[in-house]
Structure formats: C-alpha cells, structure tokens
C-alpha cells in the first residue's frame, strides 16, 4: 500500500506542480492585474459565494461514493446512473437557492448574472468530481490525476489567447467565466469517455427509487459535513466584501494573499484525495493502519513545514514580485494564512482518516463548532481591522478544527503518539526557522534566497532522518517492476 500510495502521489504532484503554478501565477494572477483589484475582488466574492451551496450540488455523494466503491467495487454498475439522476435534480435546486440567497444578500442584477454563470461552472465541476471519484475508488489513480489538471490545462490555453493573443475583444469577468465553462465541458466529456470506454467499466441503467432514497439518506451526513466545512473555510472571503469599509477592494487585496495559500493547499488536498481510498480499502480488509498513517503524516507534514516557514519569512518579497499594489497589507495577511496552512494540512490528515472510518457526524459536530467561532470572530474582527481580521479568523478557525480532529482521531484509532517522531518534528520546525532567517539575511530577501531556503530545508529533512531516502528509493524501484 505504501508503494501504491507513494508512486501515485508523486505522479499526481508532478502533474499539478507543472499545471497549477502556471494557472495560479501566470494566468489567474495576470487576470487579476488586468481586471483590477475591485473587479477581480467582486469575482472572488461571487466565486466563493457559489461554494457555500456546494453541499446541495453534491449532497456528500462524491465522498460517499468514493468510500462505498473503495469498499465494494462491484457496486459501481448499479449505482452510477442512480447518482447521476440525483445530481441532476440537486443541480436545479442549487441554482434556484443560489439565486434566491444572492437576492437576499443584496447582489444587483449584473452580479446575479455573473453568479449564474459561476454556479453553472460549479455544477459541471461537481459532475467531473463524481466521475473522478469512481476512477479514484477503483484505484485508477493515473487517470484521475490527469483529469485533475485537464480543465486547467484547457483554460490556460484559452485565457492565454485573450491575455496575450491578437484579439479585438476586450477581456472581462464574463469572458473569464465563459472560458471556464468551456474547459469544464471538455473535461467532463473526457472523464466520461475514460470511465465508460477506456476502462470498459460496465454501467447498468437501472433506476431504482429505493436505491436513490438510500443513496440520499447515506449521503446526507457527507452533505452536512461539506456544507459546514465550506462555510468555515470560505465565509471570511464573503464577510470581507460585506462587512469591511472598502468592500470589493478589500476582497481583492485578501485574494492576493489567499492565492498563495490556495496554491500551497494543493498538496494536502491532493494528498487526501489519494489517502481516502487507500485507508478505506485497508479498513475494509481489517488491516492495521497505524504504520501507514505514520508514513502519511511524515510525507505530508514535512513538505508543508518546508514551504510554510520560508513563505512567512519571505512574505513581502513574494508579494512584491507577484503584485504592484497593496504589498504591505497582503504580506501581513499571507503570514496568517501560512500559519493556517499548517492546520489545514493536519485537518486533511486526521479528517481523512476519520472519514474513511465513517465518523462523519463527529466531523460535522467539529465543523459546526468551528463555524460558530468563525462567524463570531468575523463579526467582531473584520469591521475593526479588515483583511487582517479575516486572516486571524482563518487561522483560529482552522487551528480549532485541526486540534479537535487530532483529539478524536487518537481517541478513535487508539494510535499512540510516537514521541521520537514528535520530537524530531519540533526540532525540524526550529531548524527550519533558523535556515529561513539565514537565507533571508544572506540573500537580501531575494526570491533565489526563498527557493534556496526551501531546498535546504528539504535536504535537512533527509539528513535528520525524518524522510528516509533509502525507503523512498526502494518504493520507486518496486513500482517500476509492476
């Protein structure tokens, strides 16, 4: 299992390491610069607004389906089209409720038009994720990895034409959203082809009201969890636009720092997407996950620390390279978000294990408590200190969620704390801070110093024995023989 997990994680990361940074820093960043902080800030707010109702789109079905097919692969033939019907119905409900909520919040007609387009994109993305969940659960990890970047690859090509091509059409947020729609449609067609034709997976068109009701009932806890997590992780972005004095401009400034946070968050997110079916399969086979979990913890936490600490130290140089305006304040927000990034990674680690074990209602209770804290802090801090307040809300919320998930994980799985590894991680964090400061001073806060610090920290991880080079090489050699 370690070999399967590691080799597919490396393949997934290599794909995303090429495509996602191009999208985030070359395309999305230039889109924001072209549109301006205020117009992009509105787009950023509306985009995050569409995420609040994603639980309606999916109703927890994707996570439920991933875990279910991982446990019982033969269920895909009878379950697939039943879920498609459910998701189509939920998509209609999602559009209606999103528009109604937008009217209640006070968005104007032009904003609602853009919201409808972005909501359509969310529907397409939801169907793609569902199809990918089947490939992922059946351990077709490479196909799933390719699909994880396909829409962005198409979108990069389209947006590049508008940004740098010889076109007479003026670029705006509507063109940006329509390009996303086209990219999702092509990715959806490709994912269906892979599932039904390439892997010759037999699907029965066997619609059953009983089965549909059962899927909705079993998916409800997952839906509740998705809703609560979406709210506490994204609510701050909408509160900024609604509660701060500068509205959409403040949301645009926050988006500058959030872009790096979102980019780095790719690693734990992709990590968890592979970890869920692997741990689920092990639990279904009554295998002990303690050794696998400790292995996962190391290869997740070490890279997160190696990136988060230098980013905090090099906050202003990074922001000044990416943007021309609002550098000081976005750099301060970035520090807070990088602290939050560490807790988000821990949540992916412990939360995924609890999800695989079926402790969904427990995670819902944790998320509900975190959401209440998030809302209270947002109402207090954002009107007073704006985007900095939103950064604190993000940090505190994710910190609370991570600590609670860690506590209940240890209680549920009875995996004892490895104090040797814990001590090594603490020493590694201290060493990481020292290395980052040294590179910051010696390089005069240059981007080369930032890259050098990350590389030096990763070398330190191998030298300290946190990551064993020999074990990694053995895993890769074994995978070539398969």
Can you offer a commentary on this structure?
- Helices cover 86% and strands 0% of the residues.
- It is mostly helical.
- α2 crosses α6 and α4 (61-71) crosses α11.
- It is globular, with a radius of gyration of 22 Å.
- Mean pLDDT is 83; it is low at 474-482.
Percentage of residues assigned to helices: over 70%
> What's the number of structural domains?
1
Distance between the termini: 13 Å
In terms of DSSP E residues, the strand content is under 5%
- How would you describe the shape? globular
Q: Poorly predicted ranges (pLDDT <50, ≥5 residues)?
A: 474-482
Secondary-structure element string: HHHHHHHHHHHHHHHHHH
Instruction: Characterize the main sheet.
Output: none
What is the rounded Rg? 22 Å
Query: How would you state the average pLDDT, rounded?
Result: 83
**What is the number of E strands?**
0
Structural class: mainly alpha
Count of helical stretches? 18
SSE arrangement:
Blueprint: H1 2-35, H2 37-51, H3 54-58, H4 61-71, H5 76-105, H6 109-137, H7 141-164, H8 173-198, H9 209-243, H10 248-264, H11 266-284, H12 290-313, H13 315-322, H14 327-356, H15 360-413, H16 419-442, H17 447-463, H18 469-480
Helix pairs in contact: 1-2, 1-7, 1-10, 1-11, 1-18, 2-6, 2-9, 2-10, 4-6, 4-9, 4-11, 5-6, 5-9, 6-7, 6-8, 7-8, 9-10, 9-15, 10-14, 10-15, 11-12, 11-14, 12-14, 12-16, 12-17, 13-14, 14-15, 16-17
Membrane topology: Multi-pass membrane protein
InterPro entries: Poly_Biosynth_Transport, Polysacc_synth
Main location: membrane
